[in-house]
Design a protein that fits this description.
With 217 residues, the protein is mainly alpha-helical. The chain is 72% helix and 0% strand. The protein is elongated and about 70 Å long. The termini are far apart.
Length: 217
């Protein structure tokens, strides 16, 4: 009996994993095709071989499913971005590498690409949740490490992290809308130019910075 219970437990866990995976895969397709707002739990279940009530054994509602999908994508994207930033040896590399890793991830996975493109507004509203807020926290850590290493000038890391993540997301949304992401490098160059120039401005002595206001005549 003891010998048979362990394989049975393993089979049960594999079944649970497979069912959860089936729901997530179906939801990704449905949300990408119909949009999160128009899709229902029933639409998701219809794309699986599961009974309708099985869905609720894994997720309380469709919002939880979207959260899990975004969490998967965000976790992988953050791993790539952090690795790229932490291998940078210059200010320019630090900025470009992070944005390039993020956009490369978006265009490499067509299913996630379409999910984010179709539901950008809904996902934007999730920025105050840990699933996306973690990216800002990690960038803050990298900015502080960059300052300590002399790679970056002193600055308000909380504001800068929010600005970089926000700009990266919004430009990414436009990138997704344009010909399947063919403008990837153009998006990287645009954001790199903006933020590298901003860091270089902060690195100048206070008295040598050009005035931000308009001169009056």
């Amino acid at each position: 009996m003891e010998g048979s219970s362990e394989p049975e437990l393993g089979k049960r866990e594999r079944t649970k994993h497979a069912n959860r995976r089936a729901i997530l895969d179906a939801a990704r397709e449905v949300f990408a095709e119909m949009g999160f707002g128009a899709a229902s739990v029933r639409d998701v279940v219809r794309r699986t071989d599961l009974a309708s009530g099985t869905f609720y054994n894994y997720f309380p509602d469709k919002e939880a499913v979207l959260g899990a999908l975004v969490d998967e994508a965000a976790t992988e994207a953050r791993e790539r971005i952090v690795a790229a930033r932490r291998s940078a040896e210059s200010l320019d590399d630090f900025v470009r590498a992070g944005f390039r890793a993020y956009y490369a991830f978006l265009v490499e996975d067509p299913r996630t690409f379409e999910l984010l493109r179709r539901n950008a507004g809904t996902i934007r509203a999730m920025f105050d949740q840990p699933v996306l807020g973690g990216g800002i926290d990690e960038l803050e850590q990298d900015l502080r490490a960059g300052i300590a290493a002399g790679l970056l000038p002193e600055h308000d890391v909380e504001l800068m992290a929010s600005a970089m993540v926000g700009a990266g997301f919004e430009v990414g949304v436009r990138l997704l809308e344009r010909a399947g992401g063919d403008d990837l490098e153009a998006a990287v160059e645009l954001l790199a130019d903006v933020f590298v120039a901003g860091f270089e401005h902060l690195a100048r002595p206070e008295g040598s910075r050009p005035s931000a206001g308009l001169s009056r005549t």
